[in-house]
Amino acid sequence: MGAQHPQDRGSNTAAGVFAWMLNVTSSVAIVFANKVLMNQKGDYRFTFACTLSAIHFLTAAACIKGSQLFKPAGEAAPRLPWKDTLYFSVVAVVSISSLNLSLLVNPVGLYQVAKLLIIPFVCAVEFFHPQIQRRFNSATVACIAVVVAGVAIVTVNDLGSGVTHLMGVIVAGVSVLSSGMQQILCGTMQRQHKLQSHQLLAATSPVQGAMLMLLGPWVDAAVSGNWIGNYQLTSGAVGVLVLSCSISVAV
Predict the structure, then answer these.
(1) What does the pLDDT look like over 74-99, one tens digit per residue?
(2) Opening angle at CA 144, ends 150 and 23, nearest 5
(3) 43, 180, 211, 246: least buried by Cβ within 10 Å?
(4) pTM above 0.85, yes or no
C-alpha cells in the first residue's frame, strides 16, 4: 500500500478539525437553546424535558432515514441485534432525559460542571472492570482528582447558597452515571458490531424516540406538574423548538 499523499493528509486533518469545531459549537448552542425553551421564568416555559428528548431523537431518525435514500442501492443497512438495540436505547434514554432534566432544574453553570464528572466516571469503570483494567499514569490521576474536587466545591457552594437543591444534584448525578455508561456502551458496540457512530445512531434512534414519546409526557407531568397537552404553543416557542431540533442533529 502506498504512502498517503501530503495533500490528502492535510485534507483529512482539516476535515477532522472542522468536525470537532462543529461538535463543540453545536454542543454549546443546544444547551442555550434548550435553556431558553425550558426556562421556567422565561417566555416559553416548555418544561417537558423528556418529551423534548423524544422530539430530538425522532428528528434524528427522520434525518437519517432521509439520508439513506441517497445511498447506493447495493449498500447494506447497519444491523444491530434487537437485545443490544434495546439495552443501548434504555441507557441512552435515561442519559438524555436526565441531562435535559438537569438543565431544567439546575442553573447552566452546575449543569455544565456536573458533566465534567463523566470522564472521571468512565475512567473509574475502565479501571475496575475486570475485562478492561485500564491503568492511568500519576499525572492523569492528579488531573481527575482536581476535576472531582472542583465539581464537589461548586456543588456544595450552590447547595449552600440556594442556587440549586438536593433533587437537582441527584438528577445531575444520574445524568453523569447514565451518560458515562452510554459512552462506554457506544464504544463497545461499535467495536463489537463494526459500526460507525452514525450507523449506531441509525439503528437506535427510532427506538429511543418511540420509548421517550411513550414515557416522556408522564415523566414530565410528574416532574413539572404540567401536562404537555395543555401547553400553549406560540410561534416563538415553535421557532426555538425547531432550532433546538436542528442543532440536535449536528451534535
Answers:
(1) 556 567 889 999 999 999 999 988 98
(2) 90
(3) 43
(4) no
Spatial distance between the Cα atoms of 126 and 131, rounded to a whole number of angstroms: 8
Do 110 and 168 meet the contact criterion of CB atoms below 8 Å apart? yes
Neighbours of 238 (CB within 10 A): 11
